[in-house]
Give the backbone structure.
Amino acid sequence: MSFSGKKILIAISGGIAAYKIHFLIRDFVKKGAEVQVIMTPDAEHFVTKLSISTLSKKPVYTEFYGDNGTWNSHVEMALWADVMVVAPCTSNTLSKMVHGMCDNLVIATYMSAKCPVFIVPAMDLDMYVHPSTKKNLELAESFGHSIIPAESGELASGLVGQGRMSEPETITRIIEDFFNSNIEKTLDGKTVLITAGPTYEAIDPVRFIGNHSSGKMGFSLAEEASKRGAKVILISGPSSQFINDKNVTLYKVTSAKEMLAKVFEFYDKIDIGIASAAVADYAPKEVAKEKIKKNDDNLTIELVKNPDILKTMGEKKTHQFLVGFALETQNEEENAKGKLDKKNLDMIVLNSLRDEGAGFKNDTNKIKIFTKTEKKEFTLKSKDDVAKDILDFVESQLLK
Ligand code: PMT
């Protein structure tokens, strides 16, 4: 999931639920968002500027003026944001927001904001159901703001009922859905098959031949394709990545042979195939039934060639647009172009282990894309942004 490039303004007001905001900020930042936090003076009783700014990686403001005479511009912060999230929103802050009672930095910033505003109320149950709260929430909705309703459960007062601030994961999901709904569905109606991660080739019941692929590149591609409206079939070797997206069906496999079989269950029906998996080229000829004992100084394992999944896809290509990856350490461009031809691909994405931050495991990658006639070079970016570049390029080719 990604908030790459998104600017999120969080306004914290003074309620006990403010402690949960640490998790929300961490989640947003981890997913690539830039987060600016402002707080009401009362919020400082519940969370510290130090803990919040450590997580948000930016100074946190509660006042219009800094200690050294600087001006914390509410207008600049308001216009900077892609969304504003008021969480927790106390009944006091809610009331000030809807009635324009502009007596602190949070309200002044809110009143200057042109972006969508999400209000996440948190208060004790009687306050939450009070007619004035209900009226104020209705007013906020009538202004076009989104309310993320309080949940039911045990409250700080010890009472049980509705009033608990929505959990950070729920808030993240709602904001994510909001951003996704604004993405143009350029791959609507398309089925995209993506291979990801490493393959593990068993030596015996405890050992295998594998590689350092984390699956990140492939999972980022799956997520981006889904955001663009595609139906995604993601076939991944062993990876700790996870995905929770209704448009993505994840199939977990272990070996290259299993990956090949899974790919060809769907191959006829797909429009685009992207092979980002780091498939082991060789596998042990025999898999020992029992754990191999360390008796001798040397051990020889005979390896046999694995099927080349992408090459087979290229040979059986009818209508599919095929994208390969090339992971190289030398003669990069020559090798990548060779694979483009040999595997009958429409385009190939080259990443070189000689580029710092590129290739395996990192959250970043640096790529060059080749077709038979074109070459495009990209700078080092997050894998989420690399996925966008790759799919933009695929789309540009499909339009030709
Ligand atoms: O998973 P990450 O940690 O995020 O790392 C991403 C990555 C570095 C694994 C990814 O960006 C990448 O480069 N994937 C391809 C790695 C690779 O195996 O490259 P290759 O040059 O050996 O293979 C060329 C192409 O043939 C690849 O598309 C590969 O998926 C495919 N192939 C290779 C061998 C084989 N037996 N079957 C295949 O389908």
